[in-house]
């Protein structure tokens, strides 16, 4: 599986490209401010065709370049955060012009924004682009719609491949957005955040995500669920 990462964006938000090596149909995850050129060039260099965009949640640093990247292609987002695609700038306060500076443009609403279908939240999930299937788990707290996405696969070697943490193994992967970071979690003091919901979400993930699962967050480096269960004070507090 092609699985690329780019973080030279505003607030160093990670943007990912996933694609099956045979099907060559790409999914772009979280195209934040400054991601558009990288996405365009990376797809062209690997002869990939964009088939969908997925935003893990609706904050500006994860959605700002979604219209420029997607064009007429669907931009999926968890339903509770769909409203945020109307005008994420209203939630960015004094940072609004920095988003414009990194992106090169004001906010543009995607042409085809869609709530992620409920079938992705069912046990086995669904295929979002040919060859790439995942299951979504609602994990509100950082935002109303924050979700994580689990999938299986071996990451193909590539100079821009998303790096797995040292000592990790297996094929269980997760895109964690801003729900869970290596040594941290997303803020819960923003409009629409809920600290108690975030604790419940972390408690649920600790119970349902296998420890060997390698997760790729919205900011920072990858980790495993097991490492965070051992070391994260946020998970320990949620489980107390």
Automatic annotation (TrEMBL):
| Keyword Metal-binding found | yes
**Which spans of this chain does the record mark as coiled coil?**
none
Keyword vocabulary terms for this entry: Hydrolase, Metal-binding, Zinc
Q: Does the keyword Endoplasmic reticulum apply?
A: no
According to the record, the signal peptide region is none
Question: Entry's SUPFAM superfamilies?
Answer: Metallo-hydrolase/oxidoreductase
The protein's superkingdom reads Bacteria
| Gene Ontology MF, one | hydrolase activity
Q: Which residue stretches belong to region Disordered? A: 216-240
Boundaries of each Metallo-beta-lactamase domain copy? 12-219
Name-wise, this protein is MBL fold metallo-hydrolase
A Pfam family annotated for this chain is Lactamase_B
As cofactor, the record names: Zn(2+)
